[in-house]
Amino acid sequence: MFNARRLALAAGAASLALGGPGEAVAQPAAPDATTAGYDPAAMPAAPPQPGVDTNFVSATAMPWEVMVDQQAACVTPCRLLLARPSWITLRTRENRPVRLEVGQLGAVPTIVTAHNVQDGKYATGIVFTSFGGMALITGITLGAVGYGRDREGLRTAGLITGVAGGAMTLGGIWLMRAALPRASVRALDQRGLVLMPTSNGSALAGTF
Questions:
Q1: Exposure class string for 40-59: b at 16+ Cβ within 10 A, else e
Q2: DSSP letter, residue 207
Q3: Where are the alpha helices (DSSP H) in 70-118?
Q4: Is 59 left (phi over 0), alpha (psi -120 to 50) or beta?
Q5: Do residues 90 and 67 touch, judged by C-beta distance below 8 A?
Q6: Cα 144 from Cα 101, distance rounded (Å)
Q7: pLDDT digits (tens, 9 = 90+) for 18-45
């Protein structure tokens, strides 16, 4: 009997110490090891994805505007990091600009060099084409008369003049085409051959 009373008094004292009879005291939960000290602002940001190094320069003092997917990006000389293969266009900064369709770049590091029209070479081509065309017409005429009248001298003169005029005409046309604005693409630090699409098809570039 005495022991039962002592147990009852001890239970009542414990109940009062914990907040009274019938009350449950919530104990704080132990911190989770995975969330302890977690601060979203303190987490390091993901590093940016590197792009493909693509450089643009001009062979003359004339600047060229670089367009990536028909959007203006920079003016030569400049450097772009292309995150994906993109269509590159160059154009001059004039009232009536000259456009050069370079092609799709961004697969390998490259350098693009823009060449403006070469006035001296173009003028020489015009002169060669003019005189060569006249010589070609003269040779054809002399050859026709010589064969028609069976005159050996006219046939020989027509043949020589026509061949010389044709060669001069072809040379003049080649000079004019070579003098037109163009863009050259060269791979940078690329070992072996790389197939790069361009506006005129595909081109092989690389170093060994």
A1: eeeeeeeeeeeebbbbbebe
A2: B
A3: none
A4: alpha
A5: yes
A6: 45
A7: 444 444 444 455 555 455 554 555 555 5
